[in-house]
Each structure stands twice: as C-alpha cells, then as structure tokens.
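Thread: "does anyone have the structure for this chain?"

Original post by V.I.:
We have the sequence but no experimental structure in hand. Need at least a predicted one for the grant figures.
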Amino acid sequence: MPDLDLNQVILTGTLERDPIMRFAPDGHGSQHVCFTLRCSEVGPAGQTWQLFVPVECYGSAVELCGELSAGDSMLVVGKLKWTSWQGKDGQKKTSLAILARQVKRLAAVEVSA
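Reply from O.Q.:
Generated one for you, tokens below.
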C-alpha cells in the first residue's frame, strides 16, 4: 500500500522583506521567487514569539508575487521542502522551507483607537 502522508502547509503572516526574483539553475531560464514570511503568535504567558519561514515560489505562483512588498499580509499555501547546500565555510547546511502553490496578499486591516 502506498504511503498516504499529507504534506500541506497553510500559513498567514507578514512579508519580512521584498521578494527576490531569480532564474532557476535548470538551464531553461525559469523564474522563481523567494521570500521570508514572519508568523507571530502569542504564547500562553502573553509573550509574542515569531517564526521566520522561508518560502519558494515556482510556476504560476511566481506571477502572484509580482506586486508584493515588505510588510504585506500574506496567505501561503504549499508543502514542506527540505533543502541542503554547501555554505561559504564548506559545511553542509540544511533548511526546511515552504514550496508555495498559492500566495495571496490579504487585505490590510485598519485598527481604530
């Protein structure tokens, strides 16, 4: 019987920096966009903690990133992706990121005093 694990992530958060557009090293010139999503949550003692999540977008999700900028509230839907690379110091580095299938800018919420 095949493995039926589900790998799906849905997060909302704030775009930490402007997205970075690059061309994939696949030799075909396909674009991909990378950005960091900042997710904030209030803990049981009332303290706020933040999680910074790397996000990678390919294909149709790239088009949705064209007009995003730092500070935008975002919805990201995708799956977890394990990445490894060699750092400048020669050591193997690893990271868990979201491979986004869908990104959406959320409407700004106005807070009145």
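V.I.: this helps a lot. The radius of gyration is 16 Å.
O.Q.: and The CA atoms of residues 24 and 30 lie 5 Å apart.
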